[in-house]
Amino acid sequence: MASSVIGFPRFGMDRQLKKATEQYFSGKIGREALRLVADDLKRSQWTMLQNAGVSFIPSNDFSLYDGMLDTMWMLNAIPKRYLELGLDDFDTYFAMARGYQSKAGDVGSLGMRKWFNTNYHYRVPELDAETTLSLRSTDFLSDYRLAKDMGVETKPVVIGPFTFLKLARHADGLDSSHFVEQMIDAYRAVIAACDEDHVRWLQIDEPYLVMDLSDDDIALFFAIYGAILELPRTVDVLLQTYFGDICDCYRAVCDLPFDGIGLDFVEGRETAALIEREGFPGGALLFTAVVNGKNVWRCNYDEALRTLASLPIPSERIVVGTSCSLLHVPYTVARETRLSVEIRSRLAFALEKLEELAELSSLLGKPSFRDDVAFIHNRELFQHPLSGCDGALRHRIEALRPEDFSRKDRRAVRRESQKQRLGLPVLPTTTIGSFAQTAEVRQNRARLKRGMISSQQYEKIVRMFIKDCVRQQERLDLDVLVHGEYERNDMVEYFAQQLDGFVTTDDGWVQSYGTRGVKPAIIVSDVRRPRPMTVPYISYAQSLTDRPVKGMLTGPATILNWSFPREDIPLKESMFQIALAIQDEVLDLERAGIGIIQIDEAALREKLPLRKADWKPQYLDFAIDAFRLCHAKVKAETQIHTHMCYSEFEDIIEEIDAMDADVITFEASKSRFSIVDVLRSHQFQTEVGPGVYDIHSPRIPSVEEIERHIQRLLEKIPADRLWINPDCGLKTRNPQEAIPSLEHMVSAVKNIRKTLGGLR
Ligand code: GLN
Ligand code: ZN
User: Fold this and answer.
1) Is residue 759 pLDDT above 80, yes or no?
2) Closest residue by Cα to residue 43 from 151, 204, 203, 164
3) Which of 21, 315, 454, 671 is most buried, by the most CB atoms less than 10 A from its CB?
4) Per-residue pLDDT reduced to its tens digit, 80-103
């Protein structure tokens, strides 16, 4: 039985590509050196895949920066402003990725968006009246050729025309239909180039097919592929889908002469039923996805083999594969020697998933696979839950009642008692939580980790930072202070390290975008809070000042969404477990006399299902409940804040209001005024602090600029509901940027207050 891999991680096991690319950016190495690192990496990965027995090995899934960016390049969709810089190909490519500011000109990078429901971000293509799509070169085959030179036959991977058009930003009043003919010609040329090189299989990725599709979308898909596939060809074409089922267009797909169709059985709830109901085209191979490419747990062979056996398709036409590119998981469990053997035996990162594919494909061919050691060994893993998954929390969750999700007092009552307690001026000023993570702050953490200082010494230094930060904020005359988050490496990892039920990895890097990676924690068992996580720091900060200090927590949706979740219990149950732990922390902070508690939900949207009908029942209903669970029990006088970034919450504005926080601060620098209109039209009840300047840029905004900005906000939002703050934490900004910006923000507010007068 054959096996297939859709795509593989790109950084390299030692993140050598990331490091080399960053060295290239900073001028430490030249492009030839970068290319060598990339080629070595690709070669070693092909060898790895070949040794693992993978039958369909991908090429061109690799990228120096991003696959969508490469597709823009391949299709000649290069916006004019980058071409006008007059740079060579290599530098033009990176100008699109990162922006360019030097002798030749000054242009920003292309937009960036989340890749479907993953934490990977792609660069957004721009198509306008000046765009003419065409196959720019046959470079998409250069990796195929490189692999062939070492004797490895690969299947080149390209992102398909439909997904590309659907994800592009269209301008000049044109839509996808304008580009149909150009796309047909371009992809016919792709196929012709494959034929020329005697490529056996070409994989065309069309993940957009798992989205909600209109009749026009399906017609567009059909028109493009009908034309591309009607010409004679020698290369076999695999249509690869992932991240869900393709129930809206399954018929159209089956009606087209694809040689292989890749369908997702992991996230695609309807996939098996679709095949059962509608059949499968006679001549085609079915590329099944049974090994989860997005999570880190071992595949349950019994379940996977049952799924495959139930398909009405002869096994010689089935190829086993991963549910999506392995880009979304780390390289190997082998490096995580700090983890217990019990946990390691249950985990499968990219390399272990290759072993799983090999085992599954060999088992599939055996009539008596149940007696096979690989099968028996795998079944044993799933017979017992991991230690720490005792179900005791389930009773606590099942016993929750509606009142556990609702503050006792209505907003108006809360507002009044908070006003009495806090005595804040109109347009209160605050920040989002973190202050600069300077070299000294990072060094303190690193020295503790390496055992160079004791934990007492470490704590003493953290307190010193906190004290400086509080004094600084008093000098700035901010109204609501923060402790600065100096003890945190990351807003999720910090809590994951404090809570039972999580493990963190040493080397579990996953690409987030370009050269940036994240190291998600893994939820391995029931989540409990063994002891307070933030109370000592916050209380210390509060003891230094008469002004209110905000307690700073990360919310349950964000903690869950930026971790690898368990697969043995529903997401909802995990999220509620985390919420109960956060609730304990909230109540401890309240008991310690903290009057304002902020529960960040930066990543609330992250696991929003791809299909709109699933949004509420499959996610939002419980994500909002989980947040409410965190704060429902606090007193009326305790003010609950939340913070969100990555805008795009206009379409879930009602749910955000239903979180029932007292105040929400959010990032709105890109869509500032449209969001404010939405707040108004939905009669948003929560007090709001739409960031008044962009902290993602080193620019220092002037007093006048911020003043003008606040004036505009005041046209739409009543003064007694408006907070003034930057749009996100200041962690990534150095003090030389952060402090003057905050000074200007406070001066601007003071000028405006003079015109408003009075207390809140
Ligand atoms: N409180 C966090 C901080 O200030 C929030 C970070 C975020 O929203 N991404 O850094
Ligand atoms: Zn933020």
Assistant:
1) no
2) 151
3) 21
4) 999 999 999 999 999 999 999 888
643 lines ligand 1 (CB under 6 A): yes
Q: Which of 194, 223, 240 is the last residue of a domain?
A: 240
Residue 389 lies in a domain: no
- 645 ligand 1 Cβ < 6 A: yes
CATH number of the domain to which 64 belongs: 3.20.20.210
Buried b (16+ CB within 10 A) or exposed e, 441-463: beebbeebeeeebeeeebbebbb
Residue 682 designated active-site: no
Residue nearest to atom 5 of ligand 1 (CA): 729
Q: What's the rounded mean pLDDT across residues 352-380?
A: 94
pLDDT, one tens digit per residue, over 498-548 is: 999 999 999 999 999 999 999 999 999 999 999 999 999 999 999 999 999
CA pair distance 96, 77, nearest whole angstrom: 11
Last residue of a domain, one of 219, 240, 261: 240
* Residue 652 placed within a domain: yes
Ligand number with the minimum distance to the CA of 601: 1
Expressed as residue numbers, the domain containing 193 is 56-240
Question: Of these residues, 328, 483, 696, 709, which one is catalytic?
Answer: 696
Mean pLDDT of 612-628: 97
**Within-domain flag for 357:** no
Give the 3-state secondary structure of residue 2: strand
CB 544 within 8 A of CB 518: no
Q: What is the pLDDT of residue 674?
A: 77
Is the Cβ–Cβ distance between 645 and 666 less than 8 Å? yes
Tell which atom from ligand 1 comes closest to the C-alpha of 554.
Answer: 1
| Cα 422 off chain centre by | 36
Taking the CA of residue 434 as reference, the ligand 1 atom at the shortest distance is: 4
**Which residue would you say has higher pLDDT here, 365 or 162?**
162
Residue 185 domain flag: yes
